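Exercise 7.
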Amino acid sequence: MRGIILAVLTILPVAMGAIPAFGAVSAPCPGSIPVSTFKLMVEPPKGGVALPVNSINAIEPGDKLIYKPAHPARKRKGKAKVAILLAPASGDASAHIEVLAVKPADAPAEWKVPMHASVVGLVFGPQGLDVHKINSLVKKHPDLVLKLTDYVEQTSKVEALVQTLSKYEQSAPGSTNLQSMLSHFSSQYGVALPQLSAGMPSDQQAVQLLHAVLPAFSTSDPLTRPTITQQSTGLAASVATFFFGPQVIVAAGGANLLEELHAAFFPHAEFRSAFAEPVASKGMDLCTSRPKSPSKTRARIAYLWMLHIPDAEAPSVSLPKPVDIPAGWISTVNVSCASISQLRLLPRARDWHLVSAATNVAIPVKVNVGPEADSLVLDLTHTKLPAGQYHLVAQWDWSPVKVAGAVNLLNFADYSTVKISSDSEDHLVTGSGSVPVDLTGADFEFLDNMTLVDAKHLRAAPTSLSFSLPGTSHAGPSQRMTANINASKLPPGAYFLRLSQLNGQTHDVPVIVHPPNPSLDHLPVRVNLGQPQQTIELRGTNLDRIVKIKSEDASWRLDPASAESSGATERQATLKLSPKAKKGARIGAKIFVAGIQEPLEVADVLEVAEPRPKIVSVRKSFAGETGVELRSGEIPAQSAVSFAIDAQNADSRSILRLQCGSADDTKRALTLTQGERDGANELDFAGAGALFLSLDPGDVGHSGCLLMATLTSHATGASDPFALGRIIRLPQIDQFTLSDESIGKSLYAGMLTGKDLQAIAMTGWNAKNGTPVQGIPTPVPGETEQQTLKIGMPWPPPAPHARLYIWLSGEAEGRATNARYE
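Solution. The predicted structure, written as tokens, is:
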């Protein structure tokens, strides 16, 4: 099977103490700064999904290495290049380093692997790479393979420790335990980590951990010990800070390695240590120490990162005996392998599946190695699987690994069908004392505990409830149980009855402690005859609890209550009056309340009135020709418009309100009564439901405004809004000339003179074919509002005295104008 050791060398320049990042970085590195973000993937020779190199277990001849920077093709100074180094395991007698092609660092790159490799390195040079120098490293120093391998093995443990600590520090409070995660690390890497004291400073804790990982590590020299401010850093940052110190380099055997790289093969490079932090969806961040001062030499800075991954075949895994686990739960099962080393490799298996023995269908499941290396944790909380027999399968690179042994999946009792009896919940009202609540709908045989949880304060301590079953607990199926809830001091609102089975599985059953019943104010509500249906506004308290209203002479449809409207004081309803409803009648209602079975009866909820005003039709006329085609439904903004309004149920006291359909389009809403004048705007009542409106549309709305009119009567209410038309500001063309200036194939320059020419986007000889305008409007000297606009027109025109067509911005078809070619 497949195994790999990853080594990444990244070289970045330092200028005035600042390190420019290679690629975007999504999160800061603990105790350090990011210098690069990239992906390095491996793809098998016969096809398959490319996998991150740090998840691969072996790399072999014919595989493909795929490099992807976080931001391909980003412009940068210099000639940045990348190259790949390959080497086998240090115990290989024919060990040598293979150098693959140098390629641009700012673009994706691929290399075909020529050898079985246990070390993979990536060299990044911001000013380019000298291949000859790298080849000299290959030929003159074969012993460097051993030094690379040793350095990888030691520093990868420190890097993994930083990642473990960083993952703990970024986890939600209380979701995990540091010592448990360190124990998991110990099992995986075969390192006995100490028990950390909670009161110990983070730098001292970091020293303890590093002594365990690297026994040769020492901080006895005060001149070489990093300075750490406990108040400003965490344990991960403390370990990372030590990682970049000379002590770790010496302990890992890297000092000699870095010195050889500098002195013999890269004389102009100054090497420094780095480590990697995973970045979701982006690959990995390369992290390095924060520079204390600019480099005093002219050497280029080189950052060295290595990751050790064991070169081993897939472990042989089995279950000691068939195991029973519950569906939808997190379970731990013990496993065994052929050796302890195989147990330590188990976390490198991926893509776990449960395969049904009955159907042979594989279902992906979340599996992690448990705190103990010889256990697996199966998380089925988000996986729906039927009860039955299964076996576990995982992937080792691109090959399957089957766990020998059967997994029997069983169901707990399903409490999702549990319901509270309607009689019980009707009486659960705040201040009502102890209320027995009956629950049915599931087998309560294994019910172990019940609590009441406030849905608004989930972190508050739950209240224990006493409950009883018809028979003896755990003596057999029981389809009914009774809980006792003391509602004397419970605030009204949403709660959960939390049911816990013996296995710890819980289910929350929603329950409502009812507030005082809803009440209606401002009654009766006026409704109008002569309408198929009408919307009314109810006012009162706790209106969100109303689920239905019924009346003898009216049918109701309530608008849904918003989820955030607890204690709502307003709510809309759609009403239909029956033919029996008469003017002046008062109509009562039965109000059905959520959770309450019996409806509330309220008298005189509605009062029937005569029909509302209604605008039936509108005719309009304009003060004069606009010179540009006005389309159906459009109203020119530049001139006065007259409207003859035919209305029903309106009289001389009716009020006309004008505004745009959109508030953003409205300059000002205009309200007019009969005989009233507002500037150039005036409303006259002509009798028998006829109104005459003189209006300057530009006073009400901007161009594009859909002008709406509403008639209101004090006795009967407001009409539905009626659309008078859409206001549009058209350009005014006073003159059109065409010159002999050629501006393209069969195109000649023309000139328009007029007003508001900025609205013109294209011109042409017909409504289908237009040419974009050639310039922007230019003011005419001495004329305040006059403009000129250069246009392009095809030659020849289709006919003598051909008409000019224009397109306004955003229009697909041209408008005819009064301008003609002369």
